[in-house]
Design brief:
33 strands; 5-stranded antiparallel β-sheet
Length: about 375
């Protein structure tokens, strides 16, 4: 059953759900473009309570205005939080943390400064095997009298952030939707989307201390491509949507794309996850707004399509976390926003069973 935990929220500016080693869940999302909100569940997502968020936070006297938020949890159960500002260069890409032992926030610090405020701010936080934070983000760069959105990368070494390095190589187009994936051996993939006459996915792999050449993928035509890293941290997959008819393609480790399906009833949003040898694409059907999953069942060696959540939803965001269910069963966090009342809902999705569900509001706390 989907559990209600927040009114009038938005998932358009990012967020996330992470789990501590003890099984507590922390859910982040945004509201009114100015606040990072947080709730906590200690019973597997059945109910939620408010943890004071960071509404009205300031850096150098300037109030936080959220363009995007990305979160990750380290091996010490400390949650790292990165925000990209949508209003000014003071905030730019800024970082803080939440100590889950006491549910207290650390002070904000600037991880990287903007050249100019980007039109479409975005950031992606990933932690390496040592818990070190790495950020891929959109930076505004002045060019010929206008501001272009480009992709930059920064990480924290000791107590200091490195000098930001430009990752995107084309200096005449805008980029959006950065995502950083880190392998088990700490190599990483920077994935992002550029726009010319269509959306095109790009990526660069960082290995042996340097970024490799830029690779260009399929034109997505409509929206961003979903990406996922395998549980072992050794393979990554991309799922561009290449038409409004619901066609999805799959590519592994930057290789060529293979056609998967055109039977997803014109999905309007999607995300991906990889676990236990299976691969999952989550989407919203435009015909009825149900949340569905199209997944590859490794035991059956075939793709299967099922309804996950029936209702009127949009802004589906999928967050993958190992072993967040009691007993070590791998599962996934599904966060959706109901178009009828703009409220935000949570649902647990165990990979061991793909089951249909019906939306229902349960007792919860506003985030």
């Amino acid at each position: 059953m989907a559990v209600y935990f927040g009114p009038n929220g938005t998932l358009e500016r990012g967020g996330g759900v992470v789990a501590t080693s003890g099984g507590a869940l922390y859910a982040f999302y945004t509201q009114s473009n100015a606040s990072v909100l947080l709730s906590k569940s200690t019973n597997g997502g059945s109910s939620w309570s408010v943890v004071p968020g960071v509404a009205g936070s300031t850096i150098s006297g300037t109030t936080l205005c959220v363009g995007w938020v990305s979160v990750a949890i380290d091996g010490n159960d400390v949650i790292q939080v990165v925000v990209s500002s949508s209003a000014d260069s003071t905030w730019s890409s800024s970082c803080t943390s939440v100590e889950t032992a006491t549910d207290t926030w650390a002070s904000w610090e600037q991880a990287a400064a903007y050249g100019d405020v980007p039109t479409y701010p975005g950031c992606s936080l990933a932690l390496d095997s040592n818990g070190k934070p790495h950020i891929l983000y959109i930076n505004g760069v002045s060019s010929m009298g206008s501001v272009l959105d480009r992709v930059y990368y920064v990480n924290k070494t000791g107590s200091s952030w490195t000098t930001a390095a430009v990752v995107s190589t084309n200096t005449t187009i805008n980029y959006r939707w950065p995502q950083l994936l880190i392998y088990a051996n700490n190599d990483r993939v920077a994935y992002y989307t550029g726009f010319t006459t269509a959306y095109i996915d790009y990526w660069r792999v960082y290995t042996s201390g340097a970024w490799g050449s830029t690779a260009t993928g399929y034109s997505t035509y409509v929206t961003d491509a979903a990406r996922a890293l395998s549980g072992s941290g050794s393979n990554w997959y991309r799922y561009p949507k290449v038409s409004t008819s619901g066609s999805f393609y799959e590519g592994a480790n930057g290789g060529s794309l293979s056609y998967r399906t055109s039977t997803l009833t014109s999905p309007v949003a999607h995300a991906a996850a990889v676990a236990n040898g299976n691969r999952y694409i989550f989407y919203i059907r435009s015909a009825d707004s149900d949340v569905g999953v199209h997944y590859y069942d490794s035991a059956l060696s075939q793709w299967v399509t099922q309804t996950v959540l029936a209702g009127t939803y949009n802004q589906t965001t999928v967050f993958w976390q190992y072993n967040f269910f009691n007993g070590g069963t791998a599962g996934l966090h599904l966060v959706v926003r109901n178009t009828a009342d703009a409220d935000v809902y949570y649902q647990a999705y165990p990979f061991a069973s793909c089951v249909s569900d019906t939306a229902a509001a349960a007792a919860g706390a506003a985030m």
